[in-house]
Design brief:
By secondary structure, this protein is α/β, with parallel strands linked by helices. It folds into two domains: 245 residues, Type I PLP-dependent aspartate aminotransferase-like (Major domain) (Aspartate Aminotransferase, domain 2), CATH 3.40.640; 129 residues, Aspartate Aminotransferase, domain 1, CATH 3.90.1150.10. The protein contains 13 helices and 14 strands. The strands form three sheets. It has a seven-stranded mixed beta sheet, sandwiched between helices. It has a four-stranded antiparallel beta sheet with strand order 10-12-14-13. Strands 7-6-11 form a three-stranded antiparallel beta sheet, with no helix packed on it. The radius of gyration is 21 Å and the shape is globular. The protein starts with 16 loop residues before the first helix and ends with a helix.
């Protein structure tokens, strides 16, 4: 009888006991709002910002309600206004073009390569069409950031990095989020730290961070941020920057602080599972593995592979067979968006231009979550099931 996987692709690990205890302390004293502090108290949100900034090597950090809010805030803070054009990957998830549309701007989509990273040749060709790139490190794949920054610096394009899938990752030792003017991260349940919803914005630019803090809803309480610039910077911008509240609260921050301390260890655990999947599918006829460059330190919290040349009907049948054996695959080539999975042609509000090169890649692109509730042996079994069904 064929083996069947019995794990749950959406079940995350529990919150660490240290985080639960810290959350209970917040619940007991009742000061959930980040600016509601006792005398001499810094607060969980401010402490988390300081710790995350230190972990990423940035001067400033702002904790917010979601990664999408972080991206929209970064776009506003660098001066993107309604009607502006913003470059972005054609291969990403809906919150990225959603953040661009949310500030009234228009996405200009850039092709994706078979390595699932932004096509640098297409970026260079389109760099004169906008002065901001919202770069999505989609599904944890980091492009040659030195080459990308050379293109963008030469064209005077400012780079905001969407690091929702690369928290803990790096390119040539530089943490994801530290190449451009700002980095944005998510702590939604399926990301590398889990607070249900949440996010971060980091930067070394003092005016960008001051604007972001006010935008996030600081009122005139910005002095209660420990990972922010001094009051003189806020004095320059405080009356011309709107309040668009999106603060993280102390309860979520309390849950996240212990997870941040364990991030490096968790990244290694994900990569062990990723490698088991990779090893199990490498060499299988009809399966194209995504080769990861040596300069990239990635976090394998999801796994992708290509099925080049397969028809849509074949892929749907493969997915059904895998589902029957307990393996949940997602497909980025479907004409209709399904749950979290969509593609650039689904975002009609953005009036996307046709991108045949990207269409060819997405037509065979398979995707799968890799929660840490899976063991390495589980991942080896999943790979065997997929390989078996691909050969069918």
């Amino acid at each position: 009888m064929s083996e069947r996987f019995t794990g749950n692709f959406t079940q995350q690990e529990p919150i660490p006991e240290e985080g639960i205890a810290a959350a209970m302390d917040v619940l007991r004293h009742g000061r959930l709002h980040r600016y509601n502090l006792a005398d001499g108290e810094k607060g969980e949100a401010a402490l988390l910002e300081e710790e995350f900034a230190a972990a990423m090597g940035s001067k400033y950090c702002l904790a917010v309600t979601s990664g999408g809010y972080a991206m929209a805030t970064a776009l506003r803070a660098v001066g993107v206004t309604p009607g502006d054009k913003v470059l972005s990957n054609a291969f990403t998830l809906a919150p990225v073009p959603g953040a661009i549309a949310g500030v009234g701007a228009d996405p200009v989509f850039v092709d994706v390569t078979e390595q699932l990273t932004i096509d640098l040749d297409d970026l260079a060709a389109k760099a004169d069409r906008a002065n901001v790139l919202l770069l999505s490190h989609m599904r944890g794949h980091i492009c040659d950031m030195d080459a990308l920054m050379e293109i963008c610096d030469g064209a005077d394009v400012r780079v905001i990095e969407d690091c929702a899938h690369t928290m803990g990752g790096s390119w040539r030792g530089v943490p994801s989020g530290r190449h451009g003017i700002a980095g944005c991260y998510s702590t939604q349940t399926y990301k590398h730290m889990n607070s249900g919803e949440g996010g971060f914005l980091i930067t070394d630019d003092e005016e960008l961070m001051a604007r972001a803090v006010v935008l996030s809803g600081s009122y005139m309480l910005y002095e209660r941020h420990g990972a922010a610039p001094g009051p003189e910077v806020f004095e320059r911008i405080r009356l011309e920057t709107p309040n668009m509240s999106g603060r993280m609260d102390n309860l979520r921050a309390a849950i996240l602080r212990p997870q941040l301390r364990a991030l490096a260890e968790q990244c290694e655990r994900w990569n062990m599972r990723y490698r088991a999947l990779e090893d199990g599918l490498r060499g299988v006829a009809g399966v194209q593995i995504i080769n990861r460059p040596n300069d990239e330190y990635f976090v394998g919290s999801s796994f992708q592979f290509l099925l080049p040349g397969r028809s849509g009907a074949d892929i749907r049948a493969l997915m059904e067979r895998c589902t029957a054996r307990g393996v949940e695959l997602k497909w980025f080539g479907d004409e209709e968006p399904v749950a979290f999975t969509s593609k650039y042609t689904s975002w009609a509000y953005a009036s996307p231009e046709p991108l045949p090169k990207t269409d060819k890649v997405l037509a065979g692109l398979m995707d799968m979550r890799v929660p840490l509730t899976f063991s390495v042996e589980d991942c080896a079994q999943i790979a065997r099931i997929i390989a078996d069904e691909v050969r069918t």
